Amino acid sequence: MTSEPAHMNPARSFQGLILTLQRYWAEQGCVIMQPYDMEMGAGTFHPATTLRALGPKPWRAAYVQPSRRPKDGRYGENPNRLQHYYQFQVILKPNPPNIQDLYVKSLEAIGIDTGIHDIRFVEDDWESPTLGAWGLGWECWCDGMEVSQFTYFQQVAGFEVAPVAGELTYGLERLAMYLQGVESIYDLNFNGLEGDKKVTYGDVFLQAEQEYSRHNFEYADTEMLFRHFRDAEAACRKYLEDGEPKPGSNDSRHLMALPAYDQCIKASHVFNLLDARGVISVTERQSYILRVRELAKACGAAWLKTEGGGASA
Amino acid sequence: MPDLLLELFSEEIPARMQRRAAEDLKKLVTDALVERGFVYEGAQAFATPRRLTLNIVGLPVKGQDVREERKGPRVGAPEAAVQGFLKGAGLTSLDQAKIETDPKKGEFYVAIIEKPGLPTQDVLAEILPQIIKTFPWPKSMRSGAASTEPGALRWVRPLQSIVCTFGPETEEPEVVRFQVDGIVAGDITYGHRFMAPGPIRVKRFDDYVVALERAKVVLDADRRKDIILHDAKDLAFAQGLELVEDEGLLEEVAGLVEWPVVLMGSFDETFLGIPPEVIRTTIRANQKCFVLRDPRTDKLANKFLLTSNLIAKDGGKTIVGGNERVVRARLSDAKFFWETDQKTKLEDRLEKLKSIVFHEKLGTQYERVERIAALAKELAPIVGAEPALAERAARLAKADLVTEMVGEFPELQGLMGRYYATLQGEDLSVAAAIEEHYKPLGPSDRVPTDPVSVAVALADKIDTLVGFWAIDEKPTGSKDPYALRRAALGVIRLALENDFRLGLADVFVRHLSKDTIEFKTKFVDTPEGLSAGEKFATFPERMKASISEDLLSFFADRLKVYLRDQGARHDLIDAVFALEGQDDLLMIVRRVEALGRFLDTEDGTNLLAGFRRAANILRIEEKKDGKAYDGEPNRELIHERGLPEEKVLFEVLEAASRHAREHVSKEDFEGAMKALAELRPAVDAFFDKVTVNAEDPALRENRLKLLNAIREATRSVADFSRIEG
């Protein structure tokens, strides 16, 4: 680590933090993936987590996932809240017996000295109604600040996760703010350079936060979104049906679980946008969540009939 | 005598589950031992965030020997029977069996089976895995590669290792051999996650505790609490401040650390402009830190105490800095909420309540507020409040639910409403009522006394009860999701402790008639044929009455529970409730009290005896004749042919009943009882001189009717037949 140039130091550079975590988890045998190319509310939605958690096959992956929470937009005016931020996601299936130690060592890798920082695992059970998923775990605290979520997946898409997968999610901006000692997300040093070569988080994302906040709360075309929701829902169902093994075929595997799941992700994000626009009433809200969950469950069932889900011909 | 040491070492156990888990472990293991005939001298259980530990002292080395005699077939029985007997008793030949003689059966075989007691260790090795596998965690999980196996271990978080040793104090204890899901019990534990993570070999409880202490683990939660409390007070004192004690937080924090180190942090003084409850709630809920008070001003200080789990190499500087950062961010949020909320008046928030569903069948919070406001106004004169103020308070009472602050900290509901109401210049009783209308929240919570608060508190609870009764969502058994029992108890305490009268039945029926309650209940489908969307106003009167009656009997049960807790005799409560139309809580209680006092007097005891005698005779005769003697006695017959005592009783009965009724109508129960006492000499004389079962059937019937009149007279104050003892 000492050989790293200063601008790669995770305590000085946002991208240095990402690269350090990637390198660390790569050394633990993880596949380092790139973000999924769709809008989603959290890294958990990435098929590398949701779908790969299901089925008997071992799986280890780590990736950054840009996460969109339309309702959290603050027009770039709140130093702690964003409608688009980065999560660093790690999934280990089955969870190794030393997964907690691995996590603690990842903190050490990014420069958190456990001899002076107070690291704590505080009860926090996780549940995603839209994904039909739950697990037990903790919020991981560093000096009173939540820096990660740690979950042992018990169920995803309504199916038992067996073997159990361990999921780690680092809130990168918050972690970086602590490491860099800045009070506003927008002041984060993104590239670790100084002077006129320095690029801040604000340089990269402030304009986007302002524009998307306008979009999310005021201008997003709700009629189109309602239509997109229905379309995504219908497409998901269609692909699931089309992908079913053909009668008479000697291959009983499902053929289109992944494309169908993309539509589930889309429906979920469109719902979040509609929710931010305030056009979904309290009672309707529940029914939309249920509709997305039904899609997620059907996709999970289809995935379990694919090779990735452990099915054989 | 040998001791058992058991430690179940895991990843972090939620703080709120630790104490209970330790108790469960102790109970399960000791119960299982006792069930197998093992006695022990003592048992103690402990919990830290990472371990459950059980220490049982004074166990026997092995179980008790068991000797059993098993009767077999008679001598000379068929071979098959003999073989079956030998096999069942575990014998190889008949030589090993005894022959006994019985006068009836003749000679037969008896096998003596001697089972030596099993070594305690073997028994432990059998019961412990079972207990671990079925441990009653409130929530549990599978983990790791083994989680695919059917019947895989479920633990609160992954179980890492097990220590289990057994042996006498004087010798090297042995490891009890068992395993659970591949985790083999041994004698190795681990210290503090960061300060002493290495393996530690332990023998028995004494050295185990010492070794843990050396490895920066305080095993006993109560000791951790003492350390935190003591250190917190010391740190506060050194700054001239006082700790704001918080037992719930202390218990939780002690469950978050194995080695508590209390540190002090501070925040900017400008945050002290936020209400102290908000500061405390923020710091407590999010950061699990204690706040401090300045004893000179009795106000919060800009300091807080955190409990870390580390003796930090830099003396805690970094930890304090990190925590201060988070506290600062949290208080900034709170300050922002506090300032933003003040920009909107409470009444302007009501519109937003329309989007909050209170209950699917009972409409939105907005509709609920409308109902409560109407009811509070109606009840105001009864409790001595200004109706306009009660209505205003009720209208604003739920407005803070849509403030930013309550959105973030729901536990501040009411309190924030009071702050904002005061700031916008509301009448002080209106502001107070906004906070107090939720009270009392339980049997020990304070009951509001300001009339405006009382009116709104009553309206809030009665609306809840009537609403849920109307849609038939009543508490059943242990299920009471809407806390309706608590609401009823609240009404009871409000009425009794503030000493006002309230005819509940009337209030219920009138509230059911308000057209603001939306009616979407299951009654819609009843043959009465109400269409969906029809309002309560169209509720048939009969249905209103039956809902009200049912709700009243629920109140009767709650009142009984309440009065029993206050030490009242349950039979006296029954005696009063057995009367018709008892719906005024205060009057019921007054009557019960008066009855209790009356029965303590000689007059009371004698009257009760007379009543019982009359009732007994009546019961027997009415049963014999198959008819009730409940008519008026025949006045002429008494005058013409009655005995003097009969005549006197007749006159006195009339007078005493009238007096008693008069007193009751003036709610003077004491007086009513005294009036009844007038009966006593006449009743005594009647039983002394008059034969009830006279030869003449007309006289007999009339005398029985006189006895019935005694029974009836007492009913003006209570149903004496319910009185015991």
From TrEMBL, chain A:
User: What organism does the UniProt record list as the source?
Assistant: Microvirga alba
Cellular component terms (Gene Ontology):
cytosol
Protein name as annotated: Glycine--tRNA ligase alpha subunit
Q: Which family does it belong to?
A: Belongs to the class-II aminoacyl-tRNA synthetase family.
| Catalytic activity reported | tRNA(Gly) + glycine + ATP = glycyl-tRNA(Gly) + AMP + diphosphate
Q: So which domain of life are we looking at?
A: Bacteria
Which UniProt keywords are given for this protein, alphabetically ordered?
A: Aminoacyl-tRNA synthetase, ATP-binding, Cytoplasm, Ligase, Nucleotide-binding, Protein biosynthesis
Query: What Gene3D superfamilies does this protein's entry cite?
Result: Bira Bifunctional Protein, Domain 2, Class II aaRS and biotin synthetases, domain 2
| Molecular function via GO | ATP binding; glycine-tRNA ligase activity
What's its top-level EC category? ligase
| Complexes and interactors | Tetramer of two alpha and two beta subunits.
Per the UniProt entry, the signal peptide is: none
Protein location: Cytoplasm
The UniProt record lists the EC number as: 6.1.1.14
Automatic annotation (TrEMBL), chain B:
Q: Which coarse location class applies to the principal site listed for this UniProt protein?
A: cytoplasm
Q: Does the keyword Ligase apply?
A: yes
**Protein species of origin:** Microvirga alba
Arranged from A to Z, the UniProt key words for this protein are:
Aminoacyl-tRNA synthetase, ATP-binding, Cytoplasm, Ligase, Nucleotide-binding, Protein biosynthesis
Q: Name one GO molecular function term.
A: ATP binding
Q: Which HAMAP family match?
A: Gly_tRNA_synth_beta
Q: How does it assemble?
A: Tetramer of two alpha and two beta subunits.
Protein name (database record) = Glycine--tRNA ligase beta subunit
Q: Name one GO biological process term.
A: glycyl-tRNA aminoacylation
Pfam families found in the cross-reference section: DALR_1, tRNA_synt_2f
Q: Which GO terms describe its cellular component?
A: cytosol
Q: What is catalysed by this protein? A: tRNA(Gly) + glycine + ATP = glycyl-tRNA(Gly) + AMP + diphosphate
Q: Which family does it belong to?
A: Belongs to the class-II aminoacyl-tRNA synthetase family.
Record keyword Nucleotide-binding present: yes
Annotated membrane-spanning segments are none
EC number(s) reported in the record: 6.1.1.14
Recite the lineage of the species.
Bacteria, Pseudomonadati, Pseudomonadota, Alphaproteobacteria, Hyphomicrobiales
The source's superkingdom equals: Bacteria
Report the enzyme's class at the first EC level.
Answer: ligase
- Entry's localization field: Cytoplasm
DALR anticodon binding domain sequence ranges: 612-712
